[in-house]
Design a protein that fits this description.
The complex is a heterodimer.
Chain A: E1 2-6, E2 9-11, E3 17-24, E4 33-38, E5 44-50, E6 57-59, E7 67-72, E8 77-82, E9 91-97, E10 100-101, E11 106-110
Parallel strand pairs in A: 2-11
Antiparallel strand pairs in A: 1-3, 3-8, 4-5, 4-9, 5-6, 7-8, 9-10, 9-11
Chain B: E1 4-7, E2 10-13, E3 19-25, E4 38-43, E5 50-54, E6 58-59, E7 67-72, E8 75-80, E9 89-95, E10 102-103, E11 107-111
Parallel strand pairs in B: 2-11
Antiparallel strand pairs in B: 1-3, 3-8, 4-5, 4-9, 5-6, 7-8, 9-10, 9-11
Classes of the chains: A mainly beta, B mainly beta.
């Protein structure tokens, strides 16, 4: 399983970012996928998840209405559109296949 | 939400000695397909999390057999038969039985 996350960066509160994750080494189109955040010096927090065909989507309460998860099975890509960003959204964002972490994550910093 | 509670949160160990980490869930983790979706992750300093154990007791490919998982219902345990220097880091339990997926707080394994 290899997952390559990208799209992170420094953004001001209220701004937007779009994260992407390109998958390889497994059958992406049949896999449940998630985004997980790890704040500085903190533990792991599930942010959002999506079913293999995209029909089922879930969000943590803290991001509901601000973040949108999507996937393109033909391109083996998972995305996370992050709007109205808050300081507390800061962290390293990992793309996961279920409970498998296959990448280095992408860093999101929300600060003025 | 399913609350995952780990203990201890810090475990000083002597190299070559065993170690054990407990994880308790606030609800049962048996899914509709009959499987129990409880995993154990290892995060070494400066690295991404890596899954060691899935579905309570199944070791991932390449995981040394000194690691073992057990448990049922709401009580689960990760055991290391003889701790080696490369085992130092933070260990998390994670449930993927239902959304939101949730993690334990993490247990820091450190050399005594």
């Amino acid at each position: 399983v290899e997952l390559v996350e990208s799209g992170g960066g420094l953004v001001q509160p209220g701004g937007s970012l779009r994260l992407s994750c390109v998958a390889s080494g497994f059958t992406f189109s049949t896999s449940w996928m998630n985004w997980v955040r790890q704040g500085p010096g903190e533990g792991l927090v599930w942010v959002s998840g999506i079913s293999p065909d995209g029909s089922r989507i879930g969000y943590a309460d803290s991001v509901e209405g601000r973040f949108t998860i999507s996937r393109d099975n033909a391109k083996r890509t998972l995305s996370l559109q992050m709007n109205s960003l808050r300081v507390e959204d800061t962290g390293l964002y990992y793309c996961t296949r279920g409970s498998i972490f296959g990448g280095r994550g992408t860093l999101v910093t929300v600060s003025s | 939400d399913v609350v995952m509670t780990q203990s201890p949160l810090s475990q000083p160990v002597t190299l070559g000695q065993p170690a054990s980490i407990s994880c308790r869930s606030s609800q049962g983790l048996v899914s509709s397909d009959g499987s129990t979706y409880l995993s154990w992750l290892q995060q070494r300093p400066g690295q991404s999390p890596r899954r060691l154990i899935y579905e309570v007791s199944n070791r991932d490919f390449g995981v040394p057999d000194r690691f073992s998982g057990s448990g049922s219902g709401t009580d689960f345990t990760l055991k290391i038969s003889r701790v080696e220097a490369e085992d130092i880091g933070v260990y998390y339990c994670m449930q993927t039985a239902r959304w939101p997926n949730t993690f334990g707080q993490g247990t820091r394994l450190e050399i005594k």
